[in-house]
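Reopening this one. Same input as before:
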Amino acid sequence: MDDKNKYQIDGLENPFILQRADPWIYRHENGFYYFTASVPEYERIELRCSATLAGLVRAEPKILWRKHESGAQSKHIWAPEIHFLDGKWYIYYAAGRAEDIWNIEKYVLECPDEDPMEGAWSVKGIIRTGESRFTLDATIFEHLGRRFMVWAQKPDEDPDVSNLMIAEMETPWSIKGKPVLLSRPEYPWETILFDVNEGPAVLIKNGMIYLTYSASGTDHNYCMGLLTARAESDPLDPGSWTKSKEPVFRTSGMNGIYGPGHSCFLKDEDGESDLLVYHARDYKEIQGNPLNDPNRHTRIQRIFWDENNMPLFGEPIPNTKKIVNPDLYH
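Same output, byte for byte:
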C-alpha cells in the first residue's frame, strides 16, 4: 500500500462533505454520528445525523438556529461544536455584531431533549472570559474528572494577535478562574498574513493529551500545529505543554490540497483507528478574501502513530471523487 492510500478510509470519499468548513463530528453513546460545521453563508447552525459516517454525506441537514437580523449574533456565525454534557446537548459557536462584524464572541445553544435533531434549541448565553473583543473556536474536553474549555482569543492589549487560551469550566456555559495562555503565534509558519493560533481540538490517548490547532491566514498558508502534555499533568499549567516547532499538517501541492486546518478527532466505526477530520481547498489561488471563498470542504483520513506515541498525520490525501457542481451542496 502506498503512503497516500494508507491514510484513505475504505468506503469514504474525499472531499467528504462539500462546502463545510470548521467541521465537527461527534459519535454519541447511541451509536449515531452528529455533524455540524460553518456554512458558506455564515448565517445558521445546522446538524446532520447518521448511523454511519458515509451516511452523513447525504443526510438532510436540520437547521437548529438562525442568526439575528441585527445587533449581536447577526454576523459571522462560525465553527459550531456539539457536545453532550450533564444530560443535555450543547453547541458552542462564535458570532459577530452587525454594527461591528469583527467583535466576535462565543455563545452556547442548549437542548434538554433526548434527540438533538427533533428537540428544542435555545441560546443559553454568552461565554464570558474576561476579554472584550474577538474570541472564537471554543472546544471542550474532559480529563480526570475535570472539564476544560480551550479557545482562540485576541487580548485587549494586543488585538492583532490570536492566542490559545484554556480554563476549567464551572458549568457547560461558564468558566471558573482566570484563563491561562496556552499558546501564542511565534514561529514563522504561525504568522503568515496574520498572527494566528485558533481552531483547537483535543485527543487523549497513550497517556498523553494531544491538542492540534490552526495557524496563519486562511488561504494555502493555513496549517496545523501540535501541543502535547502528559496525561497526569495539570492542563492549566503552561509548563505542562510542549509545542511543535514545525507544522504537523500542511498544504500538499503534490496532492492538490491547500490550507488544511480546524480539525477534530474520532474513531472509525469499528472503534479501532483514529481519524482526522478537517477542512481544506483543492486549489491554491483565491479571488478576494479567503473567508468569502465557499470551497473549504470537510475531509477525513486516518491517523497513525510512531514508536514514541506521536501522531503521524501524513499529508492531506488527494481527492478521490470529482466535484461536478459544488453549488448543489449548500
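So the earlier flakiness isn't reproducible anymore. For the record, Residues 14-329 form a domain with the Tachylectin-2; Chain A fold (CATH 2.115.10.20).
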